[in-house]
Amino acid sequence: MKFNIATIPGDGIGPEVIEETILVLNKIGEIYGHEFSFQEVLAGGIAIDKTGKPLPEETVEVCKNSDAVLLGAVGGPKWDTLPGDQRPEKALLGLRGALGLYANLRPAVLYTALKEASPLRSDIVEQGIDICVVRELTGGIYFGERGRKKEGKMGEEAYDTEAYSVGEVERIARTAFEIAMKRDKRVTSVDKANILESSRLWRSVVVEVAKDYPEVALDHMYVDNAAMQLIRYPQQFDVIVTSNMFGDILSDEASMLTGSIGMLPSASLAEGNLGMYEPIHGSAPDIAGENKANPIATILSAAMMLRYSLQLDKEAQVIEEAVIKVLEKNYRTGDIMSKGMTLVGTQEMGKLIVGELK
Ligand code: NAD
């Protein structure tokens, strides 16, 4: 099969981690008989320097016409003083909007080889952690009606509104159940249905969608309890599906459990098969160009791309297993280095992973 992938290396360590990821995908193509055609486009600081805009129209067009988008990272101190709407990060919001990305997938995986990196007690993380937070990305309080009133109860008042429609919840719930079908078949829907009307609607829609997935076990949890349970007993979770704001907070909490920013991939999905795949870390200007960045988060993002946009489950798994093998052979980049391990750079880590692909 032939697939068109738009690549956005971006700024800082972005180009370094994307380069290693392309080597991994090319090797997968070679082994399994696929052709990945990469078209590199500009976004972020480099786009500002070359075109005056953080997200040129050409980039949006190429991304829309691709099977998937693979992004490194954008931003850096050089562009920090620009006004808000001209900053590199604007490119990310622009891409979300233009591509209709409504579901944000944030896996938090703690490999047993790296369990000492977790801030949790060793007996809690003994069996590792494998959670996927599915966050609704285009609705809720971040997009609801907001404003200010001069005369509130105790002076000027400001308000933001949490609103969800049946269609929005149905769409994200369906995504979560589909993902659960590819994992351990458990979904926890997180809400605040004891207080919020929008959460009561959320819960009733999730219950309806669940009827189409009899193999998946569904439970519900209030967000405050979910925040505690993630720390107390993270293995109870497989897929967590939740609203934009709750997901924003819980996905960061879940990633902290794994303790290593250079290891964590993410995906943002549109309707149909299009998706944008990127590591959760930023452009790490402090180590850019020094061959120190960990490429694993981006390589695992590419594995998610194979699984969710290109329907290449087996190939995705092969990449994930290659990463585990390299970690089990005790190779580490600086961010996950510990005593007795072998320190490697970005390029060496990429080569080691390519070498484990079967
Ligand atoms: P950051 O994630 O870039 O870096 C935080 C720390 O983690 C740094 O010490 C960095 O060296 C380290 N780190 C990050 N990724 C690493 C990797 N792959 N391997 C090894 N070490 C790694 O966050 P920041 O410093 O707050 O932001 C730097 C720039 O990135 C800013 O301009 C910010 O706006 C931007 N940013 C972009 C994105 C994105 O593109 N999605 C996300 C977050 C931040």
From TrEMBL:
It is an enzyme of class 1 (oxidoreductase). It catalyses: (2R,3S)-3-isopropylmalate + NAD(+) = 4-methyl-2-oxopentanoate + CO2 + NADH. Its EC number is 1.1.1.85. Keywords: Amino-acid biosynthesis, Branched-chain amino acid biosynthesis, Cytoplasm, Leucine biosynthesis, Magnesium, Manganese, Metal-binding, NAD, Oxidoreductase. NAD(+) binds at residues 76-89, 282-294. Binds 1 Mg(2+) or Mn(2+) ion per subunit. Its cofactor is Mn(2+); Mg(2+). SUPFAM superfamilies: Isocitrate/Isopropylmalate dehydrogenase-like. GO terms for biological process: L-leucine biosynthetic process. GO terms for cellular component: cytosol. GO terms for molecular function: 3-isopropylmalate dehydrogenase activity; magnesium ion binding; NAD binding. The keyword Metal-binding applies. Mg(2+) binds at residues 224, 248, 252. The record marks 142, 192 as: Important for catalysis. InterPro entries: IsoCit/isopropylmalate_DH_CS, IsoPropMal-DH-like_dom, Isopropylmalate_DH. Transmembrane segments: none annotated. PROSITE patterns: IDH_IMDH (PS00470). Substrate binds at residues 96, 106, 135, 224. Catalyzes the oxidation of 3-carboxy-2-hydroxy-4-methylpentanoate (3-isopropylmalate) to 3-carboxy-4-methyl-2-oxopentanoate. The product decarboxylates to 4-methyl-2 oxopentanoate. PANTHER family: 3-ISOPROPYLMALATE DEHYDROGENASE. Belongs to the isocitrate and isopropylmalate dehydrogenases family. LeuB type 1 subfamily. Homodimer. This is 3-isopropylmalate dehydrogenase.
